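HUMAN: You are asked to prepare a plain-text protein record giving the amino acid sequence and the backbone structure tokens, both parts labelled.

ASSISTANT:
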Amino acid sequence: REVADKLLSFCAGLPCPADGVGIALRLAHTDLGSGTDCEQRLFDCLAEREATERQLKLQEQAKRDSSKEKDFSAAAGKRRKAEEGISVATARL
């Protein structure tokens, strides 16, 4: 608390700039970690989930686009491939 009081009194004593905007003090706490790799694992899991959800959407779009294919065998192949991708993404989620 003493450090904060001294910092605030120091900042209060600084002259105001000519533009009248004033001075801002930003104290950022950068050490948010607990010393374990838990935060990194959470970040990695979140990133993997987002990537999997994007992949799922992409496969669902490919399945929808397969219906626009003129050739039935090509459309069926695209649909099967998309369904496999959907099942893999769903299993990972």
User: Anything to note?
Assistant: The helical segments are 2-12, 38-66, 72-92. The chain has a mean pLDDT of 78.
